[in-house]
Amino acid sequence: MVPFTSLHLDARKSMPLHRQLYAEIRSAVMSGRLAAGARLPSTRSLAGDLGVSRNTVAGAFDQLMAEGYLEGRVGAGTFVTDMGGGSVPARTVKDDGAVRLSVRGERMADSRISESTEVATARAFRPGVPALDAFPRELWARLSARAVRRARSEGLTYGAAAGSPVLRHAIADYLRAARGVRCSMEQVVVTSGSQQALDLAARVLLDAGETAWVEDPSYLGVRGAFQAAGVVCAPVALDAEGLSVADGEARAPEARMVYVSPSHQYPMGMTMSLGRRMALLEWARRRRAWIVEDDYDSEFRYAGRPLASLQGLDTADRVIYTGTFSKVLFPALRLGYMVAPEGVAAALASAKALVDRQSPGLDQALVAEFLAEGHFARHVRRMRGLYRERQEVLVSEARRELAGRLDVEPSEAGMHVIGWLRGGLDDREAARAALTAGVATTALSAYRVRARVGAGLVMGYACVGPRQIRQGVRRLAGALG
Is pLDDT at 367 greater than 90 in this prediction? Predict the structure, then answer.
């Protein structure tokens, strides 16, 4: 029987353990380290040796058998298949079979933008997904067909890396009116979602080894983008007024950039006070540092008008404003935007051209029409009312079904709330139990680095209707015991 002391599984990786085990054994078979006819340990024995569940090992074995690498013999066990002529030729160069990545590649491979490994359709209570059930599909289809019919030859070939001038004009007009952003279309760069905007900002404006302040806790994707660019992320504490400038100066006085979500901090939900905004702008002016303002869901404020942007207060041209259509329209669209001082915008557009040349031209034309004809504003108003109703259902049901186990308080903005766990429950264990019960939440602790935050679940309510919300609360109640 073959010993398996060399197998290495890492629960911190985004790849599930059964896929890690599958990859390790497959590599050993393909490299010849596990010879044809070699007998493998039983699933029970190997699970005990590796410290994983028996189901994890069984899942890996089942996949390897389905693909022909292993075979089961009744009463004898599991063996490496003799592939005969189909086997991999012996290596002529010494090679341990391990993938060799660059330093940058290692950083990127170890980064993630979401704690969830789920890629299925929207379900309760998956954060960050809008109401796809309420999206005006028929209108979108008509506008799409019209955009294709109207497209001239130049609309079907390569376009400007910064984006369609028509869409950039429409974005600038919208941001000036709705968000108080001071900009012209020359300052707008269309991106493949806000994630690309974060990546471009880090790579264009900072050198590897330089430091950026990042809210703690914070959106996982920003740490991934910055670290992949070689930027050192300094976690900065939050309080009721938002990111603490004093804490940032104490922790990393040499920082050259700061990432903030001032209108609706993710995931904690607070709004940065005016005093704190002015202090941050003064720090950036004095240090000649950059502020990356992530305005990911500011349209959805339920008490009063949406707050004006931080960029609109900036008189020193230090703010890079980012936004996305993923939260307002639908994530698969993959269109976002950046607003930067004109010289910086040109550099960002050049970097965009190197990364993926341009964002899809027909999609840009379609979004431009959606904005120009007033459909976008009407859709936002409708979603604002819908999301308020869905949040009320979630809070009401949680208070009835989860009292004493999970406290869910209403929020004045956004597409998610935090459910605070009671009774000493661990939020990562609670999130795993919820997912087993068919409910997608995210552990609040997954977003923190140093911050001391209570045990909580980040719960999105935008993507599901009242019936699914009630079902989700009941399932979550069962999962939490």
Answer: yes
